[in-house]
C-alpha cells in the first residue's frame, strides 16, 4: 500500500511540474516564454514520462502555435522545433499525438524560412516523425510544392542532406512515390551525396537509391548512366560493397545493384553482379550477420537470381549457401521452447524479456520465410540444385512443417519452395512421396488466402502428374470438389490451376475418376470455362476434355451422356476467333471423338462438322492440317463398324482428293498421316 | 632439403629466345615481387621466403615441371591411385602473411581429371594426391570432394576441369582454408590447419597439366577484398581491447608515458607545459633536462667535439667510466670531421661547411635506423680502389677489411691512366702527407671521366658531383633553442657541394691527426679491456670513408648521413640518464619496441594476426 501511495505522489509531482512547464508557454513576456521552452527542452530529454505528460497537458498545439507565429523570435521558433523533435523521439503514441495536431504541415511550412538553424530543427523533427511506422507517408506528398522545395534544401548543409535523404528513404513506398521523387530530380540531387564526407549522408543517400530503383526500370536505366565524380554509379556501389565497409552499407549497395539488374539496367553476367553483388549477398546470409541482415540478404539474393539459371548455379556453390540456409531454421530451437520461456517469464513479470522473446519469435518467422524464398529461387531451374536442396538436413520435414505454420508469410514461402522443387520429376517420385507432402498441402488448400492458394494449387498440379506417386492418395482425399471450386474463382490464376490440376488428374485416369470429374464440375461449368476470357483457362479446359475423351469406351460413354453439348462447344470454338493452339487442341478433341465407336456418328451426322474438318485440312498451318487429317483418318479407319459407309460418304464430300493432295505435302509427318489415311481407302 | 630456394631466373631458357625470354622473365619477376610485397607486407622474406614456384626437388618422379617451374604435368602411367604424384612449392606459407592465396589453372584435365589442389606439410609422401595423408589437405577435381588427411573425401564443392581456375586461400589467423572456383568462394574446406604448410598439387592420370599463379599474374578471385575484411576485423579487435577498469587509470598511464618521453628527449618546454596541464610531477630537475638537451643538440648538429667537451664538463666522471662510450663519440667525431661538420675542423677555416650539418626535423622516433647502407655504388668510384689504396696511410690500410683489396675491377685503360695521374701528384708515403697541398689532393673527390681524359688537369673540379641528399633546412627540433645559447648556422640548401673536411687543408691535417689518436686510443682500449669487435668494426667503417674519392656516395657513405647521429645521441643520452638512476629508454619507446618484437615473435610462432597489426599503422 505504502508503495502505491508513493507512486501516486510521485506521479502527482510529475504532473505538477509538467503543468508548470506548459503554463510558462503562455507567459505574456516573450523572454520568459523562450526560457520556458528551453527549460522544457532540458526537462524532456530522455524522459518518456515527462514527454507523455506534456502532450497530455496540451503543450503541442501551443508549441506549434509559437513555431508558426511570425512574431515569435527565430530563436523561440527554433527551440520549439527542437522540443517537438524531442517529443517525437518518445513512444509511437507520442508520434500519433503529434501527427494528430497537424505537426507535419506546420513543420513543412517552417522549411520556407530562410534561417538554416531553424530549417535543420524542423527537418530533424520531420525526419523523426516520418521514419516512424505510424506516420502515413502520404502526408509528405499532399502538397505538391513540398518535394521540390525539400529537394532544393539538399544543398544547404550536411544536416539537411542527412535528414532529407532519410525522409525520402522512408517515404518512398510506391511506384507513384518513386516517380514523384524521380521527376523532381532526386537522382541528380542525391547522387553527389554518395561521396559526402559524412558517413550518415552517404548511407542515407544509398538507401534512397535502393528504394527508388526497386522494380523501377525508368529509375534503374537512369542510374546506370549517372556519373559521380567521373565514376559510374555501379562502380561507386561496387566499392561500397567492399568487405571492410560497414555491413549496412554493403547490404544496401548490393540491393541497389540487384534492383538495377532486375530492372534490366545491368546484365546478369556483368562482373559487378556475378563477382561482387552475388558474393556480397551470400555473405549477408552467413551466421556472423545479424538476424535482420540475414533476412534481407536472403530475400535480396532470392530476388536477384530468380530469373537467371547461371546466377542460381553460382550461388548454389558459393560459400556452402545451401547448407548455410539450413541454419536459418535453427533459430530459435523450437517455438514451443519459446512459449515455455514466455510462460515462465510472465511469472517473473519481466516484460522486457517477454518483448525480447516476441521480437525473437518474429525474427524466427522472418528467417524461415527468407530461407524458403531463397531455396525456391535457387531450385527454380536446375535439377542438380533441387537435389542438393532436398538432400540438405531435414529439408523436406522443414518444408512440411512450414506449410502448417501460423505465419502466413512462412506458409507462403514454404509452398513457393515446395512448388519450385515440385518441378523435378525425380523429387516428385522420391522425396515428395516419402514425406507425404500432399497432406499438409491439401490442408493448406482449405480456406487459405488467394496468394497461398495460387502457389499451393500450382504445386498440386505437379503432384497430380501421371508419374507422381502422390497422385493416388490425393485422389482418395477428395480433391476433386476442391479443384472444381477453384475453377469458379475470380482469380484467373486460380481458375487455371484448378482446371490444370483436373486436366493432369484426368490423364490416363480410370473411368470412375473421369465420371467423377465430369459430375463434380458439371457441364455448365465446363462450358463456362470454354468461354473463359483467359486463354490459359481455355487451353487447360480443352486439355481436360481431351484427357477425358481418351480410350474408346470412355469416349463413347461420355459422348453418349454429354455428346450434344460437347459437339456444340467444339463447333463454337472452331468458328470463333481463337489462336492456332486453341484450334489445334479442339481438333485433337474432335479426333478423339472420331476414335469412339458410337461417338463417330456424332460427327458423321453433324451437317457442319465434316465441312469444318475439310476446311482445316486445307489450312495454311501444318499443325491444324495434321490434326484435321488425324480426325478424318479416325473416321475412315477400316475394321470398324460402318467404316465402309463413312468412307463412301466422305469420298462423296471430296476428302479423297484432299488426302491425295496432302500426300504431296512438304511436311513429312503430314504427308505420312495422309498416306496412312489413303491406305484405308485402298485396303 | 625441400625448401631450397630456387630462383626461376637461374633455369636456363631454351634455344635462341634467350634474350627476349629473359626480358619477359624479369618483367614477370618484377610484377611478382611487387604483388607479393603489397599482399604480404608483414612478411620478412629473409627469415621466411614466400613460395614463388614449384620445387624441382620436392616432387614425385611422375611430375614434370616447366615454364619456370610454374607448370606441372603428369608423366607417369596413371593406371592406379598408386601412380598419383604431387609437388610442393619451394617454401612453406609464412604465418606473417595473415591471409595467403594462390591459384591453379587447369590447362588440361588429361585422361580422367584426377587432380588435387591443396596443402601439405614438409615430408608428406609425394606419391599421393594432396589430402590423403596426415598433414595433407586437398580439393579434388573429379568429384569435387575435399580430403582432410583422409583417403575418403567429404562432399565439398563443384567438380573442376579444363579451363577452370581454382584458388586456395589459407587464413593463418583462424587456421582455416577455403577454395575458389573461377573467382567464386566455395566456403570453408578445412579448419584447425597446422602451421608451415606448402602449396601442393597432385595429378594422377596422363595428360593432366596445371599452371600455378603465386602472384605472377592478377588473381581471378578478389583476395584483397577478403584481406581488407580481416584487416578491419583485427584492427577492431585491437581497438576494442579492454583497458584498465578503473576510471582514469588508462588516461593517467598514457599521460605518464608521454611526459616521460618528452623528458627523456629533453623537450623541456613541452614537457613542462604538458606536465603542468596534466598535473604530473617531473622526476628530473629542469636544469638537468636542459643540460641533456644542450648535449643532444650538439650531437645532432654534428658538433661532436663540443658535445664531448660539454659532457665532460657537466658529467665529469661519465666518460671516464665509460671508455667504450667515449670511443664511440670520438669515432663519430672523426666521421663528422670527414663530413666537415665537427667544431674542430670548422674552426680551422677553409670553407664553412654547407648543408652537411643540417639535421632534418626532430629526431626520428624510437631509434629505428631504417636507413640502410646504400649498396648502389657507381662504377666510376670502384675503378679507383686500386689506386686509392696505394696512397692510403698505413693506419687506414690496416683497418680496412681484406675484401677491399681483392675487390678490384679488371684493370682498364682508364684506371691505368688515372693511376698514372695520381702517381704524378701524390706520393704513397705516409710521411709526405703533411708536407704540401699537392700530397693529399688525391683525397679530394675527382670526377672520373674528367680525370681519365684530361689527365693533366687534376685540379679540383668538383662541380660534377651533385649532392643527391637534399636535406630539409628546418631546425624545428630545437625546442626553445634561443635560451640555450647554441646557434646553428643558417643553412644554405642551395649550396650543395661536398668536400672532405669542408675543403680546408688544415682541417684535413687535423682530421688525419685525429685519426691517429683514435687508432692509438683503440689500441689502448684493446690492451686494457680486451678485444671488442663492435669497436673494431666501428673504427674500420669510419676509416673506410677515406678509401673513396667521394665518401658520401661510397658504400660506407651512410655513416655521413645525419641520421646516423641519432643512435649516438640516444646512447649518450641514455648513459647520462643512467647515472641519474633514470631509465635509459623512455617507457613509450620501450612499449613500441616490445610491440614490434611481439609482432615478429607472433610471426615466428605462427600467429597470423600479426599481418594486420603493423606498429607503423599506429604511429602517424
UniProtKB/TrEMBL annotation, chain A:
Keywords: Cytoplasm, Nucleus, Repeat
SMART domains the record matches: ARM
Superkingdom of the organism of origin: Eukaryota
Compartments in which it is found: Cytoplasm; Nucleus
Positions of ARM repeats: 58-94, 521-563
Main localization (coarse): cytoplasm
InterPro entries per record: ARM-like (IPR011989), ARM-type_fold (IPR016024), Armadillo (IPR000225), ARMC8/Vid28 (IPR038739)
GO cellular component terms listed in the entry, alphabetical order: cytoplasm; GID complex; nucleus
Protein name: Armadillo repeat-containing protein 8
UniProtKB/TrEMBL annotation, chain B:
Annotated CTLH domain residues: 288-345
PROSITE patterns: B302_SPRY, CTLH, LISH
CDD domains membership: SPRY_RanBP9_10
Pfam families xrefs: CTLH, LisH, SPRY
Residues of the B30.2/SPRY domain: 32-219
Coiled coil spans: none
InterPro entries: B30.2/SPRY (IPR001870), B30.2/SPRY_sf (IPR043136), ConA-like_dom_sf (IPR013320), CRA_dom (IPR013144), CTLH/CRA (IPR024964), CTLH_C (IPR006595), LisH (IPR006594), SPRY_dom (IPR003877)
Database matches in SMART domains: CRA, CTLH, LisH, SPRY
PANTHER family from the UniProt entry: RAN BINDING PROTEIN 9-RELATED (PTHR12864)
Family classification: Belongs to the RANBP9/10 family.
Name the UniProt record assigns to this protein: RAN binding protein 9
Organism per entry: Cyprinus carpio carpio
Amino acid at each position: 500500500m505504502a508503495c502505491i501511495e508513493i507512486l501516486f505522489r510521485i506521479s502527482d509531482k510529475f504532473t505538477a511540474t509538467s503543468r508548470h512547464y506548459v503554463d510558462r508557454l503562455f507567459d505574456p513576456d516573450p523572454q520568459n516564454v523562450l526560457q520556458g521552452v528551453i527549460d522544457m527542452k532540458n526537462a524532456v530529454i530522455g524522459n518518456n514520462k515527462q514527454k507523455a505528460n506534456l502532450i497530455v497537458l496540451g503543450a503541442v498545439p501551443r508549441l506549434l502555435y509559437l513555431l508558426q507565429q511570425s512574431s515569435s523570435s527565430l530563436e523561440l521558433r527554433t527551440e520549439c522545433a527542437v522540443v517537438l523533435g524531442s517529443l517525437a523521439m518518445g513512444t509511437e503514441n507520442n508520434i500519433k499525438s503529434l501527427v494528430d495536431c497537424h505537426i507535419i504541415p506546420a513543420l513543412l511550412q517552417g522549411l520556407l524560412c530562410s534561417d538554416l538553424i531553424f530549417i535543420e530543427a524542423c527537418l530533424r523533427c520531420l525526419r523523426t516523425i516520418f521514419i516512424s511506422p505510424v506516420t502515413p507517408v502520404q502526408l509528405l506528398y499532399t502538397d505538391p510544392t513540398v518535394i521540390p522545395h525539400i529537394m532544393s534544401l539538399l544543398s544547404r548543409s550536411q544536416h539537411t542532406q542527412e535528414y532529407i535523404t532519410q525522409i525520402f528513404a522512408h517515404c518512398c513506398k510506391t511506384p507513384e512515390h518513386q516517380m514523384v521523387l524521380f521527376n523532381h530530380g532526386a537522382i541528380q540531387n542525391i547522387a553527389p551525396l554518395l561521396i559526402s564526407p559524412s558517413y550518415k549522408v552517404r548511407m542515407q543517400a544509398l538507401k534512397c537509391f535502393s528504394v527508388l530503383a526497386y522494380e523501377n526500370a525508368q529509375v534503374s536505366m537512369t542510374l546506370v548512366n549517372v556519373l559521380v565524380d567521373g565514376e559510374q554509379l555501379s562502380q561507386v556501389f561496387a566499392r561500397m560493397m567492399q568487405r571492410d565497409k560497414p555491413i549496412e552499407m554493403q547490404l544496401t549497395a548490393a540491393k541497389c545493384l540487384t534492383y538495377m539488374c532486375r530492372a534490366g539496367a545491368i546484365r546478369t553476367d556483368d562482373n559487378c553482379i556475378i563477382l561482387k553483388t552475388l558474393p556480397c549477398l551470400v555473405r549477408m546470409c552467413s551466421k556472423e550477420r545479424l538476424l535482420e541482415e540475414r533476412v534481407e540478404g536472403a530475400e535480396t539474393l532470392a530476388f536477384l537470381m530468380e530469373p537467371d539459371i547461371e546466377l542460381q548455379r553460382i550461388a548454389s556453390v558459393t560459400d556452402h549457401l545451401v547448407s548455410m540456409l539450413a541454419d536459418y531454421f535453427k533459430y530459435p530451437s523450437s517455438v514451443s521452447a519459446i512459449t515455455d520461456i514466455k510462460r515462465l517469464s510472465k511469472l517473473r513479470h519481466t516484460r522486457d524479456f517477454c518483448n525480447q522473446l516476441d521480437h525473437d519469435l518474429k525474427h524466427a518467422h522472418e528467417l524461415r520465410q527468407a530461407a524458403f524464398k531463397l531455396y525456391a529461387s535457387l531450385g527454380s531451374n536446375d535439377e542438380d540444385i533441387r537435389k542438393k536442396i532436398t538432400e540438405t538436413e531435414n529439408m523436406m520435414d522443414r518444408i512440411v512443417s512450414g506449410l502448417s505454420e501460423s505465419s502466413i508469410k512462412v506458409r507462403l514461402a514454404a509452398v513457393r519452395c515446395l512448388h519450385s522443387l515440385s518441378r523435378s520429376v525425380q523429387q516428385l517420385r522420391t522425396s515428395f512421396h516419402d514425406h507425404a507432402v500432399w497432406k499438409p498441402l491439401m490442408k493448406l488448400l482449405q480456406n487459405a488466402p488467394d496468394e497461398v492458394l495460387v502457389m499451393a494449387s500450382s504445386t498440386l498440379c505437379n503432384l497430380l502428374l501421371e508419374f507422381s506417386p502422390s497422385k493416388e492418395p490425393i485422389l482418395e482425399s477428395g480433391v476433386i470438389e476442391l479443384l472444381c471450386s477453384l475453377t469458379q474463382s475470380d482469380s484467373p490464376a486460380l481458375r487455371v490451376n484448378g482446371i490444370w490440376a483436373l486436366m493432369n488428374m484426368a490423364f490416363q485416369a480410370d473411368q470412375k475418376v473421369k465420371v467423377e470429374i465430369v459430375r463434380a464440375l458439371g457441364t455448365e461449368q465446363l462450358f463456362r470455362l470454354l468461354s473463359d476470357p483467359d486463354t490459359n483457362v481455355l487451353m487447360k479446359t480443352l486439355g481436360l476434355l481431351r484427357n477425358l475423351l481418351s480410350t474408346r469406351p470412355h469416349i463413347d460413354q461420355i459422348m453418349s451422356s454429354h455428346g450434344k453439348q460437347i459437339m456444340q462447344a467444339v463447333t463454337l470454338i472452331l468458328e470463333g476467333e481463337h489462336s492456332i493452339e486453341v484450334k489445334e487442341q479442339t481438333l485433337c478433341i474432335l479426333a478423339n471423338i472420331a476414335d469412339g465407336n458410337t461417338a463417330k456418328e456424332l460427327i458423321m451426322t453433324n451437317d457442319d462438322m465434316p465441312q469444318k474438318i475439310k476446311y482445316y485440312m486445307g489450312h495454311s498451318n501444318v499443325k491444324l492440317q495434321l490434326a484435321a487429317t488425324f480426325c478424318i483418318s479416325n473416321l475412315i479407319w477400316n475394321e470398324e463398324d460402318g467404316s465402309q459407309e463413312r468412307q463412301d460418304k466422305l469420298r462423296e464430300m471430296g476428302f479423297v482428293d484432299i488426302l491425295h493432295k496432302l500426300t504431296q505435302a512438304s511436311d513429312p509427318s503430314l504427308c505420312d498421316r495422309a498416306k496412312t489415311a489413303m491406305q484405308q481407302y485402298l485396303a | 632439403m625441400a625448401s631450397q630456394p630456387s630462383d626461376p631466373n637461374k633455369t636456363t631458357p631454351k634455344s635462341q629466345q634467350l634474350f627476349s625470354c629473359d626480358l619477359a622473365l624479369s618483367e614477370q619477376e618484377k610484377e611478382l615481387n611487387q604483388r607479393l610485397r603489397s599482399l604480404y607486407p608483414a612478411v620478412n622474406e629473409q627469415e621466411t621466403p614466400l613460395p614463388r614456384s614449384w620445387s624441382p626437388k620436392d616432387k614425385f618422379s611422375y611430375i614434370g615441371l616447366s615454364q619456370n617451374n610454374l607448370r606441372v604435368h603428369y608423366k607417369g602411367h596413371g593406371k592406379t591411385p598408386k601412380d598419383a604424384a604431387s609437388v610442393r612449392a619451394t617454401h612453406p606459407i609464412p604465418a606473417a602473411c595473415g591471409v595467403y592465396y594462390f591459384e591453379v589453372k587447369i590447362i588440361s584435365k588429361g585422361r580422367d581429371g584426377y587432380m588435387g589442389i591443396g596443402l601439405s606439410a614438409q615430408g608428406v609422401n609425394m606419391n599421393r594426391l594432396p589430402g590423403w595423408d596426415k598433414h595433407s589437405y586437398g580439393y579434388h577435381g573429379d568429384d569435387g570432394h575435399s580430403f582432410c588427411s583422409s583417403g575418403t573425401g567429404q562432399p565439398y564443392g563443384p567438380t573442376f576441369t579444363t579451363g577452370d581456375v581454382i584458388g586456395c586461400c589459407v587464413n593463418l589467423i583462424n587456421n582455416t582454408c577455403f577454395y575458389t572456383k573461377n573467382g567464386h568462394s566455395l566456403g570453408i574446406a578445412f579448419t584447425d590447419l597446422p602451421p608451415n604448410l606448402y602449396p601442393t598439387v597432385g595429378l594422377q592420370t596422363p595428360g593432366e597439366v596445371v599452371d600455378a599463379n603465386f602472384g605472377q599474374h592478377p588473381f581471378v578471385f578478389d583476395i584483397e577484398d577478403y584481406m581488407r575484411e580481416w584487416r578491419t576485423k583485427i584492427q577492431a579487435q585491437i581497438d576494442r581491447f579492454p583497458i584498465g577498469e578503473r576510471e582514469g587509470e588508462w588516461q593517467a598511464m598514457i599521460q605518464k608515458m608521454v611526459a616521460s618521453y618528452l623528458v627523456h628527449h629533453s623537450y623541456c618546454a613541452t614537457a613542462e607545459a604538458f606536465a603542468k596541464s596534466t598535473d604530473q610531477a617531473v622526476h628530473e630537475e629542469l636544469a638537468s633536462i636542459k643540460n641533456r638537451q644542450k648535449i643532444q643538440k650538439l650531437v645532432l648538429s654534428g658538433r661532436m667535439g663540443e658535445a664531448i667537451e660539454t659532457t665532460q664538463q657537466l658529467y665529469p666522471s661519465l666518460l671516464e667510466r665509460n671508455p667504450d662510450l667515449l670511443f664511440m663519440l670520438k669515432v663519430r667525431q672523426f666521421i663528422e670531421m670527414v663530413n666537415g661538420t665537427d667544431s674542430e675542423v670548422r674552426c680551422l677555416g677553409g670553407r664553412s661547411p654547407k648543408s652537411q650539418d643540417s639535421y632534418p626535423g626532430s629526431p626520428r622516433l624510437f631509434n629505428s635506423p631504417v636507413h640502410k647502407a646504400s649498396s648502389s655504388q657507381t662504377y666510376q668510384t670502384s675503378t679507383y680502389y686500386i689506386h686509392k689504396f696505394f696512397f692510403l696511410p698505413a693506419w687506414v690500410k690496416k683497418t680496412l677489411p681484406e675484401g677491399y683489396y681483392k675487390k678490384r675491377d679488371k684493370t682498364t685503360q682508364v684506371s691505368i691512366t688515372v693511376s698514372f695521374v695520381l702517381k704524378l701528384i701524390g706520393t704513397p708515403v705516409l710521411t709526405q702527407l703533411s708536407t704540401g697541398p699537392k700530397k693529399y689532393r688525391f683525397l679530394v673527390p675527382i670526377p672520373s671521366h674528367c680525370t681519365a681524359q684530361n689527365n693533366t688537369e687534376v685540379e679540383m673540379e668538383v662541380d660534377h658531383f651533385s649532392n643527391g641528399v637534399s636535406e630539409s633546412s628546418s631546425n624545428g627540433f630545437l625546442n626553445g633553442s634561443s635560451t640555450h645559447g647554441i646557434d646553428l648556422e643558417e643553412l644554405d640548401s642551395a649550396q650543395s657541394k661536398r668536400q672532405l673536411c669542408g675543403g680546408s687543408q688544415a682541417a684535413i691535417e687535423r682530421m688525419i691527426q685525429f685519426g691517429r689518436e683514435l687508432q692509438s686510443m683503440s689500441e689502448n682500449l684493446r690492451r686494457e679491456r680486451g678485444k671488442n669487435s663492435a669497436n673494431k668494426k666501428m673504427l674500420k667503417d669510419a676509416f673506410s670513408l677515406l678509401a673513396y674519392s667521394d665518401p658520401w656516395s661510397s658504400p660506407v657513405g651512410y655513416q655521413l648521413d645525419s641520421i646516423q647521429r641519432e643512435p649516438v645521441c640516444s646512447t649518450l643520452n641514455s648513459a647520462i640518464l643512467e647515472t641519474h638512476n633514470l631509465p635509459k629508454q623512455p617507457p613509450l619507446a620501450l612499449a613500441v619496441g616490445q610491440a614490434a618484437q611481439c609482432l615478429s615473435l607472433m610471426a615466428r610462432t605462427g600467429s597470423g594476426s600479426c599481418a594486420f597489426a603493423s606498429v607503423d599503422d599506429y604511429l602517424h
